[in-house]
Amino acid sequence: MGSNASDTPSIELLFLGTGTSSSIPHLDCLTAPPNRTPCLTCLSTLTPEGKKNIRRNTSAALRISGKDGKRTTVVIDVGKNFQAAAVEWFPKYGLREIDAVIITHAHADAMNGLDDLRGWTLGGAIQPHIDIYVSQSTFGEVQRSFPYLVSKEFASGGGDVPDFEWHIIEDKVPFEIKDTGVRITPFLVHHGRLFSTNPPPAFAPTPCTTQPTTPNLSGRSSPARPLSDACAPTTPKIHPYLCFGFLIQDSIIYISDVSLIPDDTWALLESESVKKPMPVLVLDCLRLRAHTSHMGVREAVATVRRLNPKRTYMTGFSHDISHDEYVTIGKAAGGDGPKATINMSVMELRGTEMIREGKPVWIRPSHDGLRVFISRDDKVIDETYD
Question: CA-CA distance, 225 to 227, in Å (whole number)?
């Protein structure tokens, strides 16, 4: 990093996982019959050259300099394969104690690894407890799905469960990780939709039991009617599923799962209180085309151009596009695409066409194990692209 004090990293960002919920490679691609078109992204993971296409559930670890220069370790999301990611990257990069885990939302790929944190707290193996920061709705989903993680009275078997201290965080309300000086502001984005039409947080549908038909005075049967007004015929209203993004130490905007950024969140991100330009943006980009719950290339690049950070690292990938193809598309967004298209893949051609118009911006795909360093004077370097 150099010897100047300004070059000393204030934040180290480690990508523990960069894939969507299903992870990459897909088992069905690795075991596909010979008559099926091979998935080059998944098959490449079986070779050393394709290692960057191995993508676990989206997750990150940050080491942040707080008060008195003390390093604070924060993990964002612990999904279905968090344990495997930690086993690979924690020893390699000297990570051990976790000061905080912050959870973006209550999907399996963000929180189902909570139980694996017993490896840190069971018998005080590494630390007595871990502080977990979640929204009220995510906390409710943990209570429903894994009650023993909240109250040990619900444990069974040998009762070996992790020790947590739970903290409820709110939209656009900054919080500090214990007394470290590390400040994070959560903000809500849309991550697809709820498939219940009941308003949140009433996710469980109200039973629409009807009264039995009975003869009226004319001898004809009266139509069945709902016992609850909530079941009366109405036009169903679709509610967005809300997920947290995070503004971290005025140095990183982290948005791993997003289909739409609402106006009130744009107002925060574009406000005078948010640093311009932001050193690092981490942004969801599932594939070329937008998905119900994720941005595609066009939407992601438009977001980058609007926020105009120094550097953007895309994350949350499916197997549709390989790492190298994302690199080509990212370079094209910065005006540094290949001059000749003859050697470009179909995905590269389509992706670069989608983002042809607009100001140049620095975008690259993240990959599992990528480390990014932000110095005190907001200089950004990483171990892959520098």
Answer: 7
Residue matched to tokens 């690894």: 113
Pairing of strands 9-17, 59-65: antiparallel
Whether the CA torsion 362, 89, 163, 200 is positive or negative: it is positive
| C-beta atoms surrounding 271 within 10 Å | 9
Would residue 92 count as lying in a domain? yes
Residue 216 is assigned to a structural domain of this protein: no
**Residue from 110, 108, 132, 119 nearest 160 by CA:** 119
Q: How far is CA 234 from CA 201, 228, 323, in A?
A: 19, 13, 46
Confirm whether pTM is higher than 0.70.
Answer: yes
CATH number at residue 12: 3.60.15.10
Taking the chain, what is the end-to-end CA distance rounded to the nearest angstrom?
11
Domain hosting 327: range is: 5-194+230-382
pLDDT in tens, 317-330: 999 999 999 999 99
pLDDT tens digits along 210-257: 344 434 444 444 444 444 444 555 667 889 999 999 999 999 999 999
